[in-house]
Specification:
oxidoreductase (chains A, B), globular, Aldehyde Dehydrogenase, Chain A, domain 2, four-stranded parallel beta sheet, seven-stranded parallel beta sheet, G-glutamylP_reductase_CS (chains A, B), NADP binding (chains A, B), homodimer, Aldehyde Dehydrogenase, Chain A, domain 1, alpha/beta
Chain lengths: 421, 421
Amino acid sequence: MQPATDSVLITPTLEAARDAALVLAATPTRRKNQALEAVAASLRTSVAEILEANALDLAAGEANGLSTGMLDRLSLDLARIDALADAVLQIALLTDPVGVVVRGSSLPNGVKISQVRVPFGVVGVIYEARPNVTVDIAAIALKSGNAVVLRGGSAAENTNRVLVRLLQAAVDGVGLPAASVQTIDPFGRSGATELMQARGYVDVLIPRGSAGLIQAVVTQSKVPVIETGAGVVHIFLDESAIEQMAVDIVHNSKVQRPSVCNALETLLVHEAAADRLLPAVLAKLAASGVTIHGDDRVRALFPAAVPATDEDWGTEYMSLEVAVAVVDSLDDAIRHIRRYSTGHTESIITNDLVNAERFLAEVDSAAVMVNASTRFADGGEFGFGAEVGISTQKLHARGPMGLPELTSTKWIVRGSGQVRG
Amino acid sequence: MQPATDSVLITPTLEAARDAALVLAATPTRRKNQALEAVAASLRTSVAEILEANALDLAAGEANGLSTGMLDRLSLDLARIDALADAVLQIALLTDPVGVVVRGSSLPNGVKISQVRVPFGVVGVIYEARPNVTVDIAAIALKSGNAVVLRGGSAAENTNRVLVRLLQAAVDGVGLPAASVQTIDPFGRSGATELMQARGYVDVLIPRGSAGLIQAVVTQSKVPVIETGAGVVHIFLDESAIEQMAVDIVHNSKVQRPSVCNALETLLVHEAAADRLLPAVLAKLAASGVTIHGDDRVRALFPAAVPATDEDWGTEYMSLEVAVAVVDSLDDAIRHIRRYSTGHTESIITNDLVNAERFLAEVDSAAVMVNASTRFADGGEFGFGAEVGISTQKLHARGPMGLPELTSTKWIVRGSGQVRG
């Protein structure tokens, strides 16, 4: 396939990735696992070098006024590096998706067809200043037989440079191409722009990070994109919701880890249950330091709530804040969700079977739940093992993505001279 | 989900489509089949009206100097309308993909998860002047529970207007929203441009037509696209190929229907077999009126060949022409294919098991074949029933697409109060 791109800066990188991808596609599972084991070992023996580079990034970040949250995401320490190495070994234990036969049959004329999982080829990843993503996504790509071209945030440049060098050395050490893992960070923004244009070189592009980053990639890329991310997640407390369940699930969904995409952002309550449920549900949130943005009916029941503005609906706080509204019916709840949800995850708390089934059928999100915490919408919880991200698009993958979602398929057709009549 | 689009002209159409999609998603199979039966009946009783509109398009096409091929694709007659109605009834007989459980499990904490097929929602289709596509794709969309927004070629405007009106009346007649099938032809090019920007309204966009059309959509669209189409299809005659098999498969692949994407465009021959195979293979092609574009080694063996130029490699003739080259080895054949193929379909004719397996593994196309005609890369031949197109991208669908490829999935999560620890 002839690449259709005007790339100049990153063309040698992309060509090397394509060549590496050919080798990786034919590499048996055992060899890929050896590479992952070498990566984990190398991370553990290179802690000093990694932390030295990370200290440079942190110092620059502080000088540039990065927020505490961003500095935290940027920062590595011994425990975090150890956890990263463990995660890489976990990926080595997962089933290799490549070569799995999805389906197949014998045609009436004797031709045998089978659809088999194959790597995408070259996976591009554009992400922000989280150096753990560098190792994570490279390990996932390797296991699924893909070469990976990374574009990390400039704030993590020093750390990523060291990590990519370690990854390349480990891969090379087991006889696989070093170009299986490459970074285009040295080419800055121009490199990222070229990556988004590189049809024919890059088979799929995955943005990981803020809603702004994802929107930029999704709208600018000419390469097929898997959109991950933004979660304006809703819970609806139906008229028949059991109080303790409502209290516990809402609290867990909001508070257990507020900075992630499957955390609760908007709580809706049936007007016939608001009196009964809201005081206890909101009191428990408030006791954990959650700011409640409530509409008028919510504030009448829970005066500590601050007034919700139109902007609160549809806001992904990713912090200890929640928007709360009273709605007149299940229909109103579904309508509200349809209008403001990003299609990530929504849950209904109810004891009414008909309403539960209606919610599951009519809410069009990647994960729809009954009587469960929204925090379960997660590859790890679903048993996928690896954290590729959570797709909020409908094409190719929807919801938590495991290793198979980083593969394509091809049709293998075996004949004995058949022609079409 | 809030649409991110600057659409103005087609916004009412898209909003109506979105509302219709909600109804269709919850419509049982039987009702969708009734709609399809009504469409088929309406086509048969409206032949006069359809042909009258088609005559207007044909007259305008002739006045505008459309080629014979284009006029043929534009033209309907009684037999073609009858075949269209039959095809719609065939689609009614296919298994409904919506609601199929793809996989599921019980998590250790008792939460039950299942991944279920759901319609995309709103499918956009941009195509050229083939009125049969209007009916075909509308029927496929209906069966898979999707609303469809059509943008046909202006050359078929009158025919499409009548067809869409018939489709809408038939759908409405069984109590489904008429807006399940809509056209934006009245908005011309601006409508098509808006359709490609309509993120949040349109869930997937499928271009059908020439390579130029497909490239334009793929590079301009901000909506996720399934790329179908262009096939620079190769056959490699390996050293051990059985002569009669080579002659028959090459002839069938090129001649049986030269204007389609799975027809042979480039023939490669191992140099050690060129003397033995080429004269008979090319003589049979030439006897069917095929023009042979040969390299020097081909012309030495078959003087009637015209000299191939660099442009011939990579050309999708879609006519009775073929490019032919002698290569030194299987490796050279694979290299040539890697460089010039569009990743649609390639076949090796061989009696050597190792070479067959290498070709299947190393050629990265949607369909890779051993000893079979490339014409088998087809949804009908694969037993899918409906002709949605053949995807040449790796995301979501690859190769012939059936009804399930017009669906997404969602995760249904059923708990009994579980929270994440």
